């Protein structure tokens, strides 16, 4: 179960990482190449705009590096992290935004669960681990618990979008990831996605992050992603 992230960890990062290890300079992680991982990468390349695909790949790379440095005892399968990172924003595509009145994370979780069940010989633990993490990846806060998979996806998405959590990753690793997967135009792209959901679904879960505060936080991201 823990290989899929089904262990209880605090949502509060200070409790989850009580002593921050010095982040190491790491090379890019190899992309998983199983049949499922290859299928999901092809699916994401077809469905996601390039800026969103690059963001998703950065989230995977950040996650792999941060797990190695800050959570060395976890046995979370990096393939599961990879698949989750690739699918976490699948609900934001124009097609999927129009397909439902559900918040994008919730619909994205449902899409991902069905996709993985279909292409993993019905592996329910895998499918539900990914769905849970996607549904909760914007469920930020410091009360209660989350899965280890959900926590690392939260850490990495907020790092990429807002510039927080940089203390968990080495600046050289960060720069290497962003050199490989360009972030050109990303902040504006994500801010537009926030605006789009808040306009189309003003009841949506994104609104709990603050309207328009979260958009402003994204556009105010001043983290230096280069050396």
From TrEMBL:
Q: Whom does it interact with, and what assembly results?
A: Homohexamer.
Pfam families per the record? HD
Biological classification of the source: Eukaryota, Fungi, Dikarya, Ascomycota, Saccharomycotina
Record GO biological process: cyanamide metabolic process
Any one GO MF term held by the record is:
cyanamide hydratase activity
What top-level branch of life does the organism fall under? Eukaryota
Question: What are the required cofactors?
Answer: Zn(2+)
Name this protein carries in UniProt? cyanamide hydratase
Q: What is its EC number?
A: 4.2.1.69
Q: Which UniProt keywords apply?
A: Zinc
This chain's source organism reads: [Candida] railenensis
Catalyzed reactions: urea = cyanamide + H2O
| Purpose | Cyanamide hydratase involved in the detoxification and/or utilization of cyanamide, a toxic nitrile compound distributed widely in the environment.
Xref: SUPFAM superfamilies = HD-domain/PDEase-like
Under the heading PANTHER family, the entry gives:
CYANAMIDE HYDRATASE DDI2-RELATED (PTHR35569:SF1)
Q: Which family does it belong to?
A: Belongs to the cyanamide dehydrase family.
InterPro entries referenced in this protein's UniProt entry, alphabetically: Cyanamide_hydratase_HD, HD/PDEase_dom, HD_domain
Ranges where the HD domain occurs: 52-162
């Amino acid at each position: 179960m823990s290989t899929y992230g089904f262990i209880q960890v605090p949502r509060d990062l200070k409790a989850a990482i009580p002593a921050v290890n010095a982040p190491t300079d790491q090379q890019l992680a190899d992309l998983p190449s199983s049949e499922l991982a290859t299928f999901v990468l092809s699916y994401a390349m077809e469905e996601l705009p390039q800026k969103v695909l690059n963001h998703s790949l950065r989230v995977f790379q950040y996650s792999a590096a941060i797990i190695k440095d800050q959570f060395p005892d976890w046995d979370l399968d990096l393939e599961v992290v990879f698949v989750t990172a690739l699918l976490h924003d699948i609900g934001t595509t124009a097609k999927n935004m129009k397909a439902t009145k559900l918040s994008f994370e919730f619909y994205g979780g449902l899409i991902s669960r069905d996709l993985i069940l279909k292409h993993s010989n019905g592996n329910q633990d895998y499918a539900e681990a990914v769905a849970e993490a996607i549904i909760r990846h914007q469920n930020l806060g410091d009360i209660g618990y989350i899965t280890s998979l959900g926590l690392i996806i939260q850490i990495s998405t907020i790092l990429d979008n807002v510039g927080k959590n940089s203390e968990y990753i080495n600046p050289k690793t960060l720069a290497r990831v962003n050199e490989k997967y360009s972030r050109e135009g990303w902040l504006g792209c994500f801010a537009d996605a926030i605006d789009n959901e808040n306009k189309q679904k003003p009841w949506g879960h994104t609104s709990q992050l603050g309207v328009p505060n979260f958009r402003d936080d994204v556009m105010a991201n001043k983290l230096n992603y280069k050396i």
